[in-house]
Design goal:
TIM Barrel; 7-stranded parallel β-sheet; two-stranded antiparallel sheet; about 10% strand
Amino acid sequence: MSTTFDFDPRDSRFVDSAKRLRNAYNRVPGADVPVVEPGGYVRKFSTRQRLADFEKMTVDAVGWANALAANGSDWLPFVDTFVDVVMIAEAFGCEVVYTEGADPWCTAALPDISGVWTLKPAPLGTSYMVRRLNEWVDYAQRRLGSDVPLWTVDVQSPFSVAAHIVEPTELLMACITDPKAVHHLVKMVAEYSIEQMQQHIAQMEHAGFPGRNFPSISDNIGICIADDTPLIMLSPEMYREFALPYNSMVSRALGGCHIHSCGNYSHNMDNLLLIDGVRSVQCHVGEGEYPLPRHATDDAAVNRARRSMTCLIDVNDISRGDAWRGRAREHYTDYVLTRLATGDMTGHILQTPGGPDPVTWTRREIQKRRGESTTT
């Protein structure tokens, strides 16, 4: 198993891909639509194994980077870090559970919201997962150098972390019965997350932004906030009270944000536009997750988002829904591209639907719908 890169990160094709991504994140009118594909590598080791043994982490990090370099898409190679889902929650006392074949999850630290008033997180950098992240960054930079950027970890949104710390049903009920305690907890998580991310970014000699979940470039364009829990579970009114202020706090402190969420959060998409410094959003599109309107002129929140920020559009077996099961490329042409092409595609980044030679196929289909030549 290789632990050396088999590509030159200074190659002109990576320079071209970086330009396409930079133009998309900056919403340059008329620029080429980046086509990305993060797949092509299957990890050899579990998260627990990689946390314990950086040689194993190196094998998987280099293997993924080499696969990205070889697949021909605009998703630039990076050096992987660790999934951040339970990292901050662990620092607040949650027990991490490692399940074979899945990312870690955690048990709640508090069964009752009243416990937040005496809750204290571990000193910064001392909880196991944060400490191992810091140690991995140092190890990777010594072992692999800094020509290939490290993939900045994402920030779990403060309300999402709160829903790990306090039993979720208790937390949601407390939004009604004890909102002061909820605000106290979420603000405490936001402040801790900001400090941890500032330390993480400062430690990296060459960071990739926005980091996890997004195709990344070397420019500091802000960080990814993974916002699944409040976007899906909170009403628009509750989101504006308990999530929006703290996402804005994180975004302001870290130079802007890019929002990741699975599922259908169309009821809160307009709220995302209110986050200070928001620059892009990720949508798993299709009837199974985030449905697209038939026309770009329809009165729909996602259309308002498409006109004002960058959109990373991807599809998967769940998002396609039952009606398109087993017809990935047909869904992509007849549902995704047909609907996107009714409007301006400035600031769009499109992930391929997979299949044989997916990057070339996807670029050709985009060109068809933009009225460009398909002979290249």
